[in-house]
Design brief:
By secondary structure, the protein is mainly alpha-helical. The chain contains 22 helices and 5 strands. The chain is globular. It starts with a helix and ends in a 22-residue tail after the last helix.
C-alpha cells in the first residue's frame, strides 16, 4: 500500500478540480491556455489540502521510529516494539516512503508560486487585451505588468543591497529563500484571516437560513430586482457598443488595411447584430476617394476589448436571469405544497431539461414532498449547528494555539491523544476534517465575493477568463499560509510547539522561520487572533450595513430599500410566471388543434389517395401498357395538385395589392 493512497488522491483531486472548472468555465469558448492554467492552479491547491493529512500521519510514524531507535527496542514485522513502554508503532496504511514527500512538496509549492506571481498575472492581461494578434496581446500584457513586476524587483533589489552593505547580516541562499517564502506567506495570511473570519460565520448562518422557506423566497425576490437592473444595464451597454461597431464597420470599407480588425470585432458580436450589420453594408468602395477620418488601430483595440466584455456580461445576465426564475418558481411551488393534503409534490411548470430516468424512478413526487417540505429544513438546521460548533472550535484554537503548557488548542489536543495510541486513521480523519473545513470557509468566500464586474465567479459556465485566472491566483496565495496555520493549530509545526522533533515534510520545505523572528514569534502567532473581531463584525453584518450606506443595495430585513426591492422582484417574478403560463397554454392549444384536426386532414388525404388508386386501376384495364404509365404519372400529378391546394393558405383580400401567385407574395398571406 506504500504510495497507493497518494496516487489515488492525486487522481481524485484532478477530477474534482476538473468538475468545478467545468461548472464555472466554458471549455468550448474560452482559450485553452486559460483553461489549462486555471485547472493547474486549482489542482495544485486542492492537492495540498488533500495530501497534507498523509504527511502528518507519516511524520508521526517516523517520530515513533526515531524514538524506538533511540531506546532499546526489538523489531517485529511491519512495526517496531518499544522495550520500555511496550508500545507498537504500526505502519499506517497510507505510509509514504522516505524521500517522496519532500520532492512532491517542492514541485507543488514552487509551481504554484510561479503561477500566482508570474504566469497568471501575465495571462490576465493577455486575456483582457483587445489586440488582434498574439504579438499585440503579448506587448499589451508586458506593458500592463511592467509596474507590477517592477515593484517586486525594486523591493527585492533594495533588500539585497541592504544585506550586502550591512556587515551584521551574513545571509546565505537558503536564508534568502526562506525570507521570500515568509514574505509570500505573510501576504497570504493577511488575506486569509479576512476571508476566514467571514466564512466561519456566514456558512453556518446561510445553512440555518436555508431552512427558512420565507427567507429564501424573499431573498430570491431581492436578487431578481437587482439582477433585472443589471440585466437592463448590460443590454443598454451592449446596444451602445454595437452602435459604435456599426459606425466603424460602415466607415472602414473592404479594401481598408484595418478591415481585418473590423471583421475580427464583428465575429465577437452576437449573431443578430452581425446579420443586421451585414444587411447595411455598402458595395465595394475605394476608401482613398473619401476624405474621412478613420479610427486608428489603438481605438479599434479598445473597441474590441469593450465588445468582448459587454457580450460576456450580456450573456451572463441572460443565463443568470433564467436560472433565478427557475429557483423562484421552485420556491413558490415548495411554499404551495407545504399545505398539500395528498403529500404529492406538484410543479407549476415542467422542467425544460430532460430528467434522468433513474432519478425520476427513485425521486418520486411523494419522496420529493417529504424531502422538500419535511426533511430538508431539519437537515439544514442540524448541519448549521454542526458547522457552528466547528466554527467555535476554530476561533478558540486560533486564539490559544500558541500555548503549549497547557495545550489549549482543541485540534492539538485531539491529535496528541490519537498520537499516543498511534491511531493513524483517526489522525488522518481529524486532520482532513479540520483542514477541509478551513478550506471551505476560505474558498467559499472566494467564490462568493464580487468586485464590481471585474471579478465574479458565476456558475453554469458564465465566468470570464479574467475572473478564472484571478481565482487561481488567490488560491495559490492562500493555500500555503492556510496549511501552515493548520499545522500551527495542531502543534505539528516546531516553531509553535517549541519541540525538537522531526518536522513534517511540508514544514521542511517552508524553511525555518527563525530567520525572521519578528514574523515567526509575532505576526504568525498574534495576527490570527483578529479572526474574533472579524467574526463579530460578520455576525452583526457590519460590512453589509456599510455597503448599504454607500449605495450598494444589500439584503437586510430591517431596511426600507430592501422591502421595496422585494416587492419589485415579486412583481417581476409574477409577470414572468404569467408569461410562461401563456406560452404553455398556447403550446397546449396548438397541440390539441393538431391532434383534433390533423387526423381529419390525414383521413381526407387517404380517401383521395384511395380514389386515385381506383381510377388508375380502371385505366390500366382499358388501355395498353404504354398508356398506363402516363396514366399513373397523371394520377400522381393530380394528387400533388390536390395536396398543394389543401396546404395552401387563404388569400388576404384586405391587402393593398394582390399578386397572381399567393405563394410568392408576402402581403397575400
Amino acid at each position: 500500500m506504500s504510495g497507493a493512497a497518494l496516487g489515488l488522491e492525486i487522481v481524485f483531486v484532478f477530477f474534482l478540480a476538473l468538475f468545478l472548472l467545468h461548472r464555472y468555465g466554458d471549455f468550448k469558448k474560452q482559450h485553452r491556455l486559460v483553461i489549462i492554467a486555471t485547472l493547474l492552479a486549482w489542482y495544485l491547491c486542492f492537492l495540498i489540502v488533500f495530501i497534507l493529512p498523509l504527511d502528518v500521519s507519516t511524520t508521526i510514524y517516523n517520530r515513533c521510529k526515531l524514538a524506538a531507535n533511540s531506546s532499546p527496542a526489538e523489531s517485529n514485522g511491519s512495526y517496531v516494539t518499544l522495550a520500555p513502554s511496550k508500545q507498537k508503532c504500526f505502519k499506517p496504511w497510507s505510509y509514504i516512503p522516505d524521500g517522496i514527500m519532500p520532492i512532491f512538496w517542492r514541485v507543488v509549492y514552487w509551481t504554484s508560486q510561479f503561477l500566482t506571481w508570474i504566469l497568471l498575472p501575465f495571462m490576465q492581461s493577455y486575456a483582457r487585451s483587445g489586440g488582434f494578434s498574439i504579438t499585440g496581446k503579448i506587448k499589451t500584457a508586458l506593458i500592463e505588468n511592467a509596474i507590477y513586476y517592477g515593484t517586486y524587483l525594486l523591493i527585492f533589489g533594495a533588500f539585497l543591497i541592504y544585506v550586502a552593505v550591512n556587515p551584521n547580516f551574513n545571509l546565505q541562499w537558503n536564508q534568502l529563500q526562506t525570507i521570500g517564502i515568509a514574505a509570500a506567506n505573510t501576504w497570504g495570511l493577511f488575506l486569509l484571516v479576512l476571508l476566514l473570519g467571514y466564512g466561519l460565520v456566514e456558512i453556518p448562518r446561510s445553512h440555518w437560513n436555508g431552512a427558512k422557506r420565507g427567507y429564501l423566497l424573499m431573498k430570491t425576490y431581492f436578487k431578481a430586482a437587482k439582477l433585472m437592473t443589471e440585466k437592463a444595464d448590460a443590454e443598454e451597454n451592449l446596444e451602445d457598443i454595437m452602435e459604435e461597431v456599426r459606425k466603424v464597420s460602415e466607415s472602414i470599407k473592404y479594401n481598408h488595411p484595418l478591415r481585418k480588425c473590423v471583421d475580427t470585432i464583428l465575429k465577437k458580436c452576437p449573431t443578430e447584430y452581425q446579420e443586421r450589420m451585414g444587411r447595411n453594408m455598402d458595395d465595394y468602395e475605394d476608401f482613398d476617394e473619401r476624405q474621412n477620418s478613420y479610427p486608428s488601430e489603438k481605438s479599434l483595440t479598445k473597441l474590441h476589448k469593450q465588445v468582448i466584455y459587454s457580450v460576456q456580461r450580456h450573456r451572463r445576465t441572460q443565463v443568470q436571469w433564467q436560472i433565478l426564475l427557475e429557483q423562484a418558481f421552485y420556491l413558490e411551488d415548495v411554499a404551495k405544497n407545504e399545505s398539500s393534503a395528498t403529500r404529492q409534490f406538484v410543479h407549476t411548470f415542467h422542467s425544460q431539461e430532460p430528467e434522468n430516468k433513474i432519478i425520476q424512478y427513485f425521486y418520486t413526487p411523494t419522496v420529493e414532498w417529504y424531502w422538500e417540505c419535511l426533511l430538508r429544513p431539519w437537515f439544514y438546521r442540524v448541519l448549521a449547528v454542526v458547522l457552528a460548533t466547528f466554527s467555535v472550535i476554530v476561533v478558540w484554537s486560533e486564539c490559544t494555539f500558541f500555548s503549549t503548557k497547557p495545550v489549549l488548542s482543541l485540534f492539538a489536543v485531539f491529535i496528541q491523544l490519537a498520537e499516543k495510541t498511534y491511531n493513524y486513521i483517526y489522525i488522518e480523519m481529524a486532520c482532513f476534517l479540520t483542514i477541509f473545513f478551513l478550506s471551505i470557509c476560505v474558498y467559499s468566500t472566494v467564490f462568493r465575493i464580487r468586485v464590481f464586474n471585474y471579478y465574479y465567479l458565476a456558475s453554469h459556465h458564465q465566468t470570464d477568463a479574467y475572473s478564472l485566472l484571478f481565482s487561481g491566483m488567490l488560491f495559490c496565495r492562500l493555500t500555503p499560509p492556510l496549511c501552515l496555520n493548520f499545522l500551527g493549530l495542531t502543534h505539528m509545526d516546531a516553531t509553535i510547539s517549541h519541540k525538537n522533533t522531526q518536522p513534517t515534510a511540508y514544514t521542511s520545505i517552508m524553511g525555518s522561520m527563525r530567520v525572521l523572528s519578528f514574523i515567526a514569534d509575532g505576526f504568525y502567532i498574534y495576527y490570527p487572533m483578529l479572526v474574533v473581531i472579524l467574526c463579530i463584525a460578520t455576525y452583526f453584518s457590519l460590512g453589509t450595513r456599510c455597503l448599504n450606506l454607500l449605495g450598494f443595495q444589500q439584503f437586510m430585513g430591517d431596511s426600507e430599500m430592501t422591502s421595496d426591492l422585494i416587492d419589485e422582484g415579486k412583481e417581476l417574478i409574477r409577470r414572468e410566471k404569467r408569461k410562461r403560463q401563456r406560452q404553455e397554454e398556447g403550446e397546449n392549444r396548438r397541440r390539441e388543434w393538431k391532434e383534433r384536426y390533423g387526423n381529419r386532414d390525414e383521413s381526407t388525404r387517404n380517401r383521395v389517395v384511395h380514389t386515385d388508386q381506383k381510377e388508375s386501376s380502371f385505366s390500366e384495364t382499358n388501355a395498353n401498357r404504354p398508356l398506363s404509365k402516363y396514366t399513373r404519372s397523371n394520377g400522381r400529378t393530380e394528387r400533388d395538385r390536390i395536396e398543394l391546394l389543401q396546404d395552401a393558405e387563404p388569400l388576404d383580400f384586405n391587402a393593398d395589392s394582390i399578386n397572381d401567385d399567393p405563394l410568392e407574395s408576402d402581403s397575400g398571406r
